[in-house]
Design a protein that fits this description.
Layout lengths: L8 E5 L4 H11 L3 E7 L19 H5 L4 E6 L4 H12 L3 E4 L5 H4 L4 H7 L4 E6 L14 H7 L20 H24 L4 E5 H6 L3 H10 L16 E5 L4 E5 L3 H11 L13 H6 L1 H12 L4 H11 L3 E3 L3 H6 L1 H5 L3 E6 L3 E6 L22 H7 L4 H9 L3 E2 L2
Parallel strand pairs: 1-2, 1-4, 2-3, 4-5, 5-6
Antiparallel strand pairs: 3-12, 7-8, 8-9, 10-11
Helix pairs in contact: 1-7
Length: about 400
C-alpha cells in the first residue's frame, strides 16, 4: 500500500462499524491492516441488510476496503497462537469487544505488552475502560441519547431524535485512528507502545461543544431548534418552490446581502431585526417573512442569486444527489474497486488529502480470503496449516 502510513502494520480485531472505520482510515493512508474475523461466519455486519446479489453485505463492503482478511477461532489454542505470531511484529492491535473479552482469551494488554513491548493496544468500547459504566455494552443509539445529542435534535415539541447517520460510531472510529497515529508517532521516538482508549459515549459527547459552552457559561440548556442555530439568525433550512435551501446569513454583512437578493430592504430598518440579538429574539417572525419570499422561486434560482452575491447557501440533498454532486466527484469522495465476486464496487473515499502520497483502493476481503497467505508469511508450513484447519482454528477460502 502507498500512503503516509506505509510500513505500519495494524491487526484489526473489530466488527460492525467503529473499529472497521478506524482500520479502513489507517489502511487508506497506507497501513497494512490485517482484519481478523471469527469463524465460521465472520464480522456480524456481513449479515446486515441489504445483502448484495453476490452474497456480500453492503454494510460490510462500505467500511472494510484496503484490508487483508483472515478468519481465526480464538476459542482454540491454535487460533490464539496464530494471533500471537501476528502481534509479535505488529505496530498496533485494534479491538471493539465487550470489556474482558480479550483478557478471557489471554490476549489483554498486559499479556500482549510482554509479547511485544512496542505494541499499541487500541480499545473502542461503549463507555471506555474506566468509570462506573466500563463494563456496560454500548451502541450508537445509546451513546447519542446519553450525550445530550438526542435531547436537542429535531423539531421543538417532538420526541427525541437521533442523528440520521450513526455519528457516535463513525466519530469513535476517527478518534481511534487519530489516537493510534499519535501513539505510533510516540513509538517511533521511544520504541514503547501504550493503550489508546476511546468510546462511543465520548465520541458522541465530543459533538456537543457549543451546547456545552452555553451550559458552562450560564446554565442554559439549548432547546430543539430543527435546522436553526442557537447563536445567529437567519441560519437554517428554508422551503423553496421545489425543495429546500440552507441559508447561512450568520453575520450582519451576510444578512444585508440576503435582504438585497430577496429585495426586502424594509427589513433592514425593521427594529425587530436590526442586530443579530434582535433577530434571535424575533426569529419566528423573521423566518415566516423569509419563508414566504423564498417559496416563490426554485432552489436552483436562489442558489444562483446567492452565489452571485457571495452569500453562503446550499441545497438540501438526499444521498443519491449528494453522491452524484460535482463537488463529490471533484474531491474523489467516491472510489471504484473490483471485487472478485461482486464485480464493480463503489465506496466512499478518504476525506483527507495528501499532496505527496496517494493510496490505492482494494476491495473488502472475502471471509478468510488471505488466511493462507498470512499463515505462510508467519512461517507456517502446509502441513501445519492443514492441522490448524482440522482443529477448526482457522478458516481458509
Amino acid at each position: 500500500m502507498a500512503g503516509p502510513l506505509a510500513g505500519m502494520r495494524i491487526i484489526e480485531l473489530a466488527h460492525i462499524m467503529s473499529g472497521p472505520i478506524c482500520g479502513m482510515m489507517l489502511a487508506d493512508m497506507g497501513a497494512d491492516v490485517i482484519k481478523v474475523e471469527k469463524t465460521p461466519d465472520g464480522d456480524d455486519s456481513r449479515r446486515f441488510a441489504p445483502i448484495l446479489p453476490c452474497g456480500e453485505s453492503a454494510s460490510f463492503m462500505i467500511v472494510n476496503r484496503n484490508k487483508r482478511g483472515i478468519a481465526l477461532n480464538l476459542k482454540t489454542e491454535g487460533g490464539r497462537e496464530v494471533l500471537r505470531r501476528l502481534l509479535l511484529d505488529a505496530d498496533a492491535v485494534l479491538e471493539n469487544y465487550r470489556a474482558g473479552t480479550m483478557e478471557k482469551f489471554g490476549l489483554g494488554y498486559e499479556a500482549l505488552k510482554t509479547l511485544n513491548p512496542g505494541l499499541i493496544y487500541c480499545s473502542i468500547s461503549g463507555f471506555g475502560r474506566s468509570g462506573p459504566y466500563a463494563d456496560k455494552g454500548g451502541f450508537d443509539l445509546i451513546a447519542q441519547g446519553m450525550s445530550g445529542m438526542m435531547s436537542m435534535t429535531g423539531e421543538e415539541g417532538r420526541p427525541p431524535v437521533k442523528a440520521g447517520s450513526p455519528v457516535a460510531d463513525i466519530n469513535a472510529g476517527i478518534l481511534a485512528a487519530l489516537g493510534i497515529a499519535a501513539a505510533y508517532a510516540s513509538k517511533l521516538r521511544t520504541g514503547q507502545g501504550q493503550i489508546v482508549d476511546t468510546s462511543l459515549f465520548e465520541a458522541s459527547l465530543q459533538q456537543m461543544y457549543w451546547p456545552a459552552a452555553n451550559y458552562f457559561a450560564d446554565g442554559t440548556i439549548l432547546p430543539k431548534m430543527g435546522s436553526a442555530n442557537s447563536t445567529s439568525a437567519p441560519y437554517q433550512a428554508f422551503p423553496t418552490s421545489d425543495g429546500w435551501i440552507n441559508v447561512g446569513a450568520a453575520n450582519q454583512n451576510n444578512y444585508e446581502r440576503l435582504l438585497e437578493v430577496l429585495r426586502m430592504p424594509a427589513l433592514a430598518d425593521d427594529p425587530r431585526f436590526r442586530s443579530n440579538a434582535d433577530r434571535m429574539t424575533n426569529r419566528d417572525a423573521l423566518v415566516q417573512l423569509l419563508t414566504e419570499r423564498l417559496r416563490t422561486q426554485s432552489t436552483a434560482y436562489w442558489l444562483e442569486q446567492f452565489d452571485a452575491a457571495g452569500l453562503p447557501a446550499g441545497p438540501v440533498l438526499d444521498i443519491a444527489q449528494a453522491l452524484a454532486h460535482e463537488q463529490t466527484a471533484a474531491r474523489g469522495m467516491t472510489v471504484q474497486m473490483q471485487h472478485p465476486v461482486a464485480g464493480d464496487v463503489t465506496g466512499l473515499g478518504l476525506p483527507i488529502h495528501f499532496s505527496e502520497e496517494r493510496g490505492s483502493s482494494l476491495p473488502p476481503p472475502m471471509l478468510g480470503e488471505h488466511t493462507r497467505e498470512v499463515l505462510l508469511s508467519l512461517g507456517y508450513g502446509e502441513n501445519e496449516i492443514a492441522s490448524l484447519q482440522q482443529q477448526n482454528a482457522v478458516l481458509l477460502r
